[in-house]
Specification:
57% strand, globular, mainly beta, 5 helices
């Protein structure tokens, strides 16, 4: 480790020395949105007529070190959704130059002059990366009126959904836990509301969304399949602004503005569902004459907040946080009993970040981060005699949670036009409580506690990477990440080499390759594979090894300048080792019979291997009056576990052979926007019973799973090969129309009318075997039935900005 750090500093010292053959000067600065003074990440900056270019980092800082020139050089600054800026400079000294970009006017078509900035992106060494402009996200048809970033990402090639309506991401054969989800540097462990039907991310509060599916730069680690990085808005430093919306299931409001004009700004964004408020009077009316009254309910809320202070060009401070919770409850009361039950889960994150500019070539960001996820089940019941006196009480509380404290620092160094060096380190203290169950009752003198061993562990990493351009037509990103994980009695040290490259071919065609190794030290145990809140997060231990993957990818990318289209074709192969799953019949409530005071989750799991490979095609247009994309994925995923499916290979639930998405957005006029989505996918791989029969278990009344037979007392279901049944194909068509109107004082309102699953396709949600009578006889037969939950669903929402 010490030698690696020494090499980093030696490399940093040698770079300027290697560049001393001729006089060079640096142009650097920050890029902001003109109206709000908000910093813009990922903006393309390049010198016209040369191969030299760069992109602003996550905090809007760019730096270009160029040979001295007697003539002027022209810098072009370009970003999707903004007017490009061209600025000439005489390069005879170091120059500090900030740029202010103005949002593009609606309906303006792309004007092509010379080389477009998009060509610089196609030539970037990073591959398998998806960027979704927030403005485009808001125009895509929404489920029940809620704009959801995860649903939009599901429409990209290589990204698949789980079951109907779910927001979980399955990237190149990986499960939901294999995605590193980052919000303002903080890791988010569960990204779903309403049992997975909505994500926790309010698009009104987001500034940028980037998904990396492979070829990971060395600065990322900790998951096998993807990195989803999102940054919140900073808030306007010039004037108070707001936006919000009222939908069928939730409403939201975002406020932003200056605390000290030009220097300090704030952002507050909140959202809450009102399903419980709307349903309460209906339930009360329906139960008016019933002796037993049941009151169910559900709600979720989330809150984003951010404050930033600008000390000048050299120092900036950010404080941001997210808080969200879901709560489902059911209260029942009758003359002889009362029962209250609930299910709750939520996330909380907090990030304090300090940006510092040492000089025009060296930039740093240091962050202190807190992240927590908690899941809780509670139930209380009480019985009464005829006089109303309590005769029996019972209560149950189940808890599972994970807490992280993280310190990280990242450096961006720009020694020459051919090199952009990033290096840094990160350390995280994890505290896991996989599960804790407390049961109290009048029949026991003391409460009974079943508790999994709490685990404290440390995860850290040191990384370095270099964007290197050895020739005009070749760019390389090479890096190394050294990952370390410590349990109370064992240490894991894993080197992770990374490589990606882009070779520019004739005709503005780029050939790209990448290789990446990843290790994952935290795992999610799931019975469903859907990424629901009941899934448990557990750490690597002495008995559970870290998950590991190797992924190689290659492909072509091309910018079609006249049409504004970008075309990419990629093929990939990924090998995964030490992936974990529950044993047959095990669950998060499994208790060790020999030691009933302890939940031994390690005894209920098995580890195995996985393979995923395929090809992805994406044709995308991000700008202009008509925009959208067509994505196609052809893929195979296989798993092999010694203790599952008799050790034979099988497809996981989310293996999908074909996946197609077609997205179109057409701005008919400045007042009307039409958008549509059509998706098609091969059905999920499922395990369904081959037969059911009555029998006698060795322990009547018990549930169990033995040798492919699942027992429910006297009833048994017999299964064959795991996930050998393929569900029917999934497809649907969504449509929406937005009506915009600008009023005096800068107020803008938008009515949106849409329909989910417009042609009412009955897509399978689950299958079940039922026994049905054969005609008028006394004989019965087993029938496999398909159940659907989402027919055509109309929606209407009202959105506003001021």
């Amino acid at each position: 480790m010490a030698r690696f750090v020494a090499c980093l500093f030696l490399l940093s010292g040698l770079m300027p020395c290697l560049a001393r053959g001729q006089t060079k000067f640096t142009i650097s600065g920050f890029i902001r949105e003109k109206d709000t003074r908000e910093l813009l990440p990922g903006v393309t900056v390049y010198v016209e007529g040369t191969p030299f270019g760069t992109a602003a980092n996550s905090y809007g800082f760019y730096s270009l070190t160029l040979p001295a020139a007697t003539d002027t050089v022209t810098l072009t600054v370009s970003y999707i959704g903004f007017e490009p800026v061209r600025q000439p400079f005489r390069l005879n000294r170091d120059i500090a130059a900030d740029f202010w970009l103005t949002p593009s006017a609606r309906l303006d078509e792309v004007t092509v002059s010379g080389k477009k900035a998009g060509g610089q992106q196609v030539f970037a060494p990073q591959m398998s990366k998806v960027e979704v402009p927030i403005a485009q996200l808001r125009k895509i048809p929404a489920f029940l009126g809620e704009k959801d970033v995860l649903r939009v990402l599901q429409l990209m090639p290589g990204v698949q959904k789980g079951s109907e309506g779910q927001t979980g991401l399955y990237v190149r054969g990986g499960g939901p836990d294999q995605n590193l989800v980052i919000l303002d540097d903080a890791v988010v462990y569960n990204a779903s509301h309403l049992f997975g039907f909505f994500s926790i991310f309010n698009s009104d509060a987001l500034k940028s969304v980037e998904l990396t599916k492979g070829g990971f730069p060395a600065r990322y680690g900790g998951r096998l399949s993807s990195v989803l990085e999102m940054n919140m808005k900073e808030g306007s430093k010039e004037k108070l602004k707001g936006e919000g919306g009222i939908g069928l299931v939730a409403s939201r409001l975002t406020l932003e503005g200056p605390l000290a004009k030009g220097r300090t700004s704030f952002l507050v964004s909140g959202r809450r569902t009102y399903i419980d408020l709307l349903a309460r009077p209906l339930i009360a009316h329906a139960q008016r004459n019933d002796e037993s009254k049941v009151t169910p309910g559900y709600y979720f809320y989330d809150l984003n907040a951010k404050v930033n202070y600008d000390f000048g060009d050299r120092n900036k401070l950010y404080l941001s946080g997210y808080f969200g919770r879901d709560r489902f409850y059911a209260n029942e009361k009758s003359s002889g009993s009362a029962m209250n039950a609930g299910l709750a889960w939520g996330n909380a994150t907090g990030t304090l970040r300090w940006n510092h500019l040492y000089n025009q070539r060296l930039f740093s960001n240091t962050s202190f981060i807190f992240s927590r996820f908690n899941f809780r089940v509670d139930s209380d019941s009480e019985e009464f005699d005829s006089q109303g006196a309590s005769t029996d009480k019972y209560s149950l509380i189940y808890d599972s949670n994970i807490r992280d404290w993280t310190l990280k620092t990242d450096f961006d160094y720009f020694p020459s036009p051919q090199h952009e060096v990033k290096f840094g380190l990160i350390a995280t203290l994890h505290k896991f409580v996989p599960s804790a169950l407390t049961v109290k009752g009048d029949l026991s003198d003391d409460p009974i506690d079943f508790t999994a061993r709490p685990v404290n562990s440390v995860e850290s990493a040191l990384y370095a990477e270099d964007n290197w351009q050895p020739f005009d037509r070749l760019k390389i990103n090479a890096g190394l990440r050294l990952a370390y994980f410590r349990t109370p009695s064992k240490h894991y040290f894993r080197p992770e080499p990374r490589w990606s490259s882009a070779l520019r071919l004739p005709g503005d065609l780029s050939f790209k390759t990448s290789y990446a190794e990843m290790n994952q030290f935290v795992h999610m145990l799931s019975n469903t594979g859907l990424g629901l809140p009941t899934d448990l997060w557990v750490p690597t231990t002495d008995l559970v090894a870290p998950q590991h993957s190797r992924q190689v990818a290659a492909g072509f990318a091309r910018e079609l300048e006249r049409t504004g289209l970008t075309l990419s074709l990629e093929g990939y192969y990924k090998y995964m080792n030490h992936i974990i799953s529950y044993k047959e019949g095990a669950s998060f409530l499994s208790i060790d019979g020999e030691n009933a005071r302890e939940l031994n989750w390690e005894d209920n799991i098995t580890s195995g291997k996985g393979w995923s490979y395929g090809a992805e095609l994406l044709l995308q247009k991000k700008e202009g009056r008509f925009s959208g994309w067509i994505g196609y994925t052809l893929s195979w995923t296989n798993w092999k576990f010694p203790e599952l499916n008799n050790g034979r290979m099988f497809h996981p639930r989310y293996d999908r052979r074909h996946d197609i998405s077609v997205v179109g957005i057409y701005e008919i006029s400045r007042k009307i926007t039409l958008s549509a989505v059509w998706v098609y996918g091969t059905g999920n791989a499922l395990t369904v019973p081959l037969s059911t029969y009555d029998g006698v278990t060795d322990d009547l009344g018990k549930f169990g799973y033995r040798g492919g037979v699942e027992w429910f007392g006297y009833r048994a279901r017999e299964y064959g090969e795991k996930n050998s049944f393929r569900a029917e194909p999934y497809h649907r068509f969504d449509l929406s129309v937005q009506f915009h109107k600008k009023k005096k004082g800068g107020f803008e309102r938008t009515w949106e009318i849409g329909a989910y699953n417009l042609y009412n396709r009955k897509n399978p949600f689950f299958y079940n075997i039922t026994r049905e009578r054969i005609g008028q006889t006394d004989q019965y037969q087993n029938v496999l039935k398909r159940y659907s939950i989402f027919p055509v669903i109309p929606s209407v929402s009202y959105n506003f900005k001021f």
